[in-house]
Specification:
The chain folds into two domains: 90 residues, 2-Layer Sandwich (Alpha-Beta Plaits); 116 residues, Barwin-like endoglucanases, CATH 2.40.40.10. The chain is globular. The strands form two sheets. It has a six-stranded mixed β-barrel with strand order 1-5-2-4-3-6. By secondary structure, the protein is an alpha+beta fold.
């Protein structure tokens, strides 16, 4: 099998086997279309007034009491959220476009790792906008205040997640041969240890999305945090 086809097949298999613990059916707009977030067009919503439209989901148990990506202990009763690229500490107004209810959240975590979604709300935040039952909703994000960070922003492309490190290492080696920079990051998920395979760092969000497009598979662009 040619190297490219082998790589793409491996990426597809690893994404199907990945356990993120937050999967719910993806809501779709009329006609079955999943909205494209503005970040996928190269914009980075991190300045006051910037907006983004797409689907939101929420998470509670079994993540309650576990450490979030920013180092804090996740509390499902606090108004927080996960976003793939916004700096930690960014304050965001989330409006449920299906009922016009809004809530302000602080970005403390990374996610959601489900294609077609732009933010993962805490259980308390989801309750404020009445999306506990449906599980997902079309929302508009508006940045109210951006966290200050003097460090340059770097991004990576997540190409897969595995329960077995050997499988992750095989994909990492293939990506390394093709792109010259790949690494494995361990993640202690609520369902056990995962090995995430990522390509990077990339110096801009636009370059990260260009790299992701080359894989022609379901990938996630994520901000690299210290």
């Amino acid at each position: 099998m040619p190297r490219k086809k082998l790589l793409l097949a491996c990426v597809a298999v690893c994404l199907l086997s990945a356990a993120c613990g937050r999967h719910r059916p993806v809501a779709r707009a009329p006609g079955g279309r999943v909205p494209t977030s503005t970040t996928e067009k190269g914009a980075q919503p991190a300045r006051p007034g910037d907006t983004e439209v797409g689907y939101a989901s929420w998470y509670g148990d079994p993540y309650h009491g576990r450490r979030a990506a920013n180092g804090e202990i996740y509390d499902k009763n606090q108004l927080t959220a996960a976003h793939l690229t916004m700096p930690f500490g960014t304050m965001v107004k989330v409006t449920n476009l299906e009922n016009s209810r809004s809530v302000t959240v602080r970005i403390t975590d990374r996610g959601p790792f489900v294609k077609g979604r732009i933010i993962d709300l805490s259980q308390a935040a989801a309750r404020e906008v009445a999306m506990i039952g449906p599980g997902t909703a079309m929302v508009r994000l508006e940045v109210l205040s951006a966290a200050e960070d003097s460090r340059p922003a770097l991004f990576a492309v997540q190409a897969g997640a595995f329960r077995e490190r050997a499988n992750a290492e095989r994909l990492r080696q293939q990506l390394q041969a093709r792109f010259g920079s790949s690494f494995i990051q361990e993640y202690d998920s609520a369902r056990g240890l995962l090995y995430r395979v990522r390509i990077g760092p990339q110096p801009s969000l636009q370059e990260a999305y260009r790299l992701a497009a080359q894989l022609e598979q379901e990938t996630f662009v994520i901000r690299m945090d210290p």
